[in-house]
Amino acid sequence: MPRTPLAAGIDIGGTKISAVITDDDGRRLAFDHVPAPAAAGGPAMADAAAALVRRLEAEAGAAVGIAGVGAAGVIDQRSGTVVAASATFAEWAGFALGAALADRLGVPVAVDNDVNAFLVGELRWGAARGQADVLGIMLGTGVGGAIALDGRLFAGHRGAAGEIGHTPGYGELVCTCGRVGHLETLASGRSIEARYAERTGAAAPIVRGSEIADRARAGEPEALAVFDAAGRAVGLAASSAASMFDLSFVVIGGGVRAAWDVLEPAIRAGIDGNPPVSGFPLEVRPAELGADGVVLGAAALAYSDAPHTMPAGASVPTALAAH
């Protein structure tokens, strides 16, 4: 039987690029990150990512045979192209990221957005192992979502399935996108800090989310109220998604997951107050891959049956095709 190749997982964000080399059990052989040259355009980002992988190969003393990328923005999985992205990235929308990295690394490359990669990682190596129908939620600077059906990522027609952060119905606050009442206005790390500042009249510098969580643990009413609103909103969103797709499991990651002990009771209250229409319980678990969830998820994506962009003139390796 052909030997399964090592994989590079790459997480491309607006401020840094992280990479890891793993085997198919998720064992990390090398890891590091570098600043992201987001203002320099897509080719510069691909150059930085490829150079990082090459350095990690040298550290690990082994070459990768496949690579996966979790990137910020809306991604066309089939072509590995960035369809849309925030203004943080220069010349990023429309960039053929998969082809650029495949040619630079000389291996097949699978590309998806960062939240989809996160969910693939949790399905393969994390809290969602063995689950079939799953909602993944990332509570970070913003709020992202992803869906798996029958154990496989469901991306939708344009790669944006599961993006619950910008769904409406959560009040009258203006979202960062300019629209009103989105889940992100209550449940992102940035919004938790903003809502706390509004409640307390705190002036700059703004109280960080980790400190607000500590104050909630100490019983401070304002901090508890902010996390209660965030958690109940997440619970409502999870229950709504479960009703639409008949999901049974939710995994929650991102930086806000560090406050799981104060967030989970409110999430459960939000679900219990608006249970899925199926009548069956919805299991909610914190992510297990932690701060490295996206970069490890990108490596898991490389091992998955997601579309891979091939280097020019290459064919799919036998080990990958059989995997």
From TrEMBL:
<protein>
    <submittedName>
        <fullName>Sugar kinase</fullName>
    </submittedName>
</protein>
<dbReference type="InterPro" id="IPR049874">
    <property type="entry name" value="ROK_cs"/>
</dbReference>
<keyword id="KW-0808">Transferase</keyword>
<dbReference type="InterPro" id="IPR043129">
    <property type="entry name" value="ATPase_NBD"/>
</dbReference>
<comment type="similarity">
    <text>Belongs to the ROK (NagC/XylR) family.</text>
</comment>
<dbReference type="GO" id="GO:0016301">
    <property type="term" value="F:kinase activity"/>
</dbReference>
<dbReference type="Pfam" id="PF00480">
    <property type="entry name" value="ROK"/>
</dbReference>
<dbReference type="InterPro" id="IPR000600">
    <property type="entry name" value="ROK"/>
</dbReference>
<keyword id="KW-0418">Kinase</keyword>
